[in-house]
Fold this protein.
Amino acid sequence: MVGIKLTKWDVVEHLQTDQDMIGYFDACLADGDPALIAAALGDIAKARGMSQVSKDTGLSRENLYRALSGVGNPEFSTIIKVTKALGLTLHASSEPANA
């Protein structure tokens, strides 16, 4: 019997370009799950360098890791600071109410 070796898939390893990060974040925003959106920001921050994001936001790395873990519940001000530090923006659009 041949054994199968599995490795953990890490999205951070696949976020190499700005377009990768934008597409990933956009898809998570479209899903609408707040925990997924926070976790996506955490993934993008890790890909860019959490130390730099910490400096740019004025928030500690530990607080960022916790808030953007997907199980944290970051304040909206934290989300805004992180998106700004990452060069991302949030956009609004409308869709039919019954969509």
